[in-house]
Amino acid sequence: MVTHNALRRTILCALILFLTACGETGKKKVVMLPNSHLQPIRITKVSHAVGSQELLLHSLSLIGTPYRYGGSSRENGFDCSGMVQYVYKQALQVNLPRTARDIAAVSTPIRKQDLRIGDLVFFNTNGQNYSHIGLYIGQGEFIHAPSSNGMIRTAKLDHPYFNQRFTDARTLFAR
After folding, report:
1. What distance in Å separates the CA atoms of residue 174 and residue 161, rounded to the nearest whole number?
2. 74 vs 62: CA distance, rounded Å
3. Widest pairwise Cα distance in the chain
């Protein structure tokens, strides 16, 4: 038998869920990944236009830097997430988590066609949706630190290898 208090709690929970769902109309939902202990990052202290130029300049200066698994410095080399973490720290003083998966967890999903310079692109290169990350630099290109051929370079999103493995576009900028 359902008690009066249990029924009131059930109705109250249903009402809260209903009102919460109604309040979401027209807003973008932030989809949290399994790493929900991480807080979302929204860059608001600088416009996307200004921030993207800083990110572009810092990232392009790294072209030719050696790939190094676990690397996160110009001196020792970079892996993909180390490069993105380094560029955001140097260009915008934004501290990002260390792995591609955790960076995905603190960013907001966007449509691929809405990518702007400084946004993030993710790929499944080893059976995990967020196993590789790059920084979008415009005109269908991104910069990344791939382990193959061992250095930071640019690539095209429509290249067959990356097109097949593309999993997500995300941003850290408030939109």
Report:
1. 30
2. 8
3. 71
Q: Tens digit of pLDDT for each residue in 154-175?
A: 999 999 999 999 999 999 999 8
Would you please indicate which residues are annotated as catalytic (active-site) residues?
80, 132, 144
C-alpha span between 117 and 142 (Å, rounded):
9
Q: Backbone dihedral region of 18: left (phi > 0), alpha (psi from -120 to 50 degrees) or beta?
A: alpha
Token pair belonging to 4: 């009066």
Q: What is the pTM of this model?
A: 0.79
Three-state SS at 173 = strand
Q: Beta-carbon neighbour count of residue 139 at 10 Å?
A: 8
Q: Determine the Cα–Cα distance for residues 61 and 89; give it in Å rounded to an integer.
A: 14
What's phi and psi for 169, nearest 5 deg? -115, 135
| CB-based contact 123:167 (threshold 8 Å) | yes
Query: Residues 170, 107: contact at Cβ < 8 Å?
Result: yes
- As a whole number of angstroms, the distance between CA 171 and CA 31 comes to 12
Contact 154, 136 (CB under 8 A): no
Contact 88, 100 (CB under 8 A): no
Q: Would you give the DSSP letter of residue 111?
A: -
